[in-house]
Amino acid sequence: MARARSSQAQTFARRLAWRLEVAAYDAITALARLFPIDAVSDFGAAALGRLGPMTSAHRVAVRNLQIAFPDLAPSEIDALAAEQWRQIGRTFAEFPIIDRIVAAGDRIEIVNAERLAEIARTAEPVVFVSGHLSNWEIMPAVIAHSGVVCHMTYRAANNPYFDKRIRDNRFRYGVRLFAPKGGDGARELLDALGRGESVALMNDQKFNGGVAAPFFGRLAHTAPGPSRLALRFDTVLQPMSVQRLDKARFRVIVHPPIKPLVTGDRAADIARSVERINTFMEERIAERPAEWFWVHKRWPAETYARKRR
Hints:
By secondary structure, the chain is of the alpha/beta class. It has a domain at 107-296. The protein contains twelve helices and nine strands. It has helices spanning 2-32, 37-51, 56-68, 74-94, 98-104, 113-122, 138-145, 160-172, 183-194, 225-232, 266-287, 301-305, and strands at residues 108-111, 127-130, 150-154, 178-180, 198-202, 206-215, 218-222, 237-244, 250-254. The strands form two sheets. It has a seven-stranded mixed sheet, sandwiched between helices. It has a two-stranded antiparallel sheet with strand order 6-7. A hairpin with a 5-residue loop joins strand 8 (237-244) and strand 9 (250-254). The longest helix has 31 residues, at 2-32.
């Protein structure tokens, strides 16, 4: 009986904490929607630009930058680490108002938009791949508004009330089809491609048990899912990237498609395709290093244990 009461109390406390989190998010969202778009973006940059370097994640970002760019001076690493916090702050602050950014009409420039139009016109199912570049939420909005029927994968928030807010906000700027990560999400993606619909996945974070492929000169475990899907359905990987031009203004680039090679050795074909995705991501990050999400551990633990030379 005592154990049951304790469990009920924990459940109540957890739900109360979830509701308080959502109340805070709702208040921040309501406030953000009262201000001009660029002012909201600037506030995010200033707030996280000050708070981010005080967190333990800052050490991860610095170490990641040291691994990726071993020839940079400490002052250059520090400058990049500081700027990436301002970029992340902009992205987080912009999330509640992305529908306003999209609706503005002049804040998103699309390079090679004709490729998206072709996918929509031919109903060609493709596997969109990208990473956490600039404001990565802009990419699914552009895909959705292009007329391409596409299922977007996402990691559900632990707080179910907050997760609903995230989904509702994405619905506001045009994203209708979601596939959560995990077993159920994988089945949804297979079903979608089987119906001739496209899918979109982020492919730039550590995936334990994934393919060990080169990334900035070090092996990094990378999810093979996008490559497997493209090979299974004999379609292409369609890379996209997002660049921040100024404050809350963006350039979305639809890159040339990647057609996985088919040699009959499925494991080798998947590994080769994963390597090509990693190369694509590495090139995009090297072009604009301050705009990538550096605060997660991308490489194996032993890479972080080594001292910088």
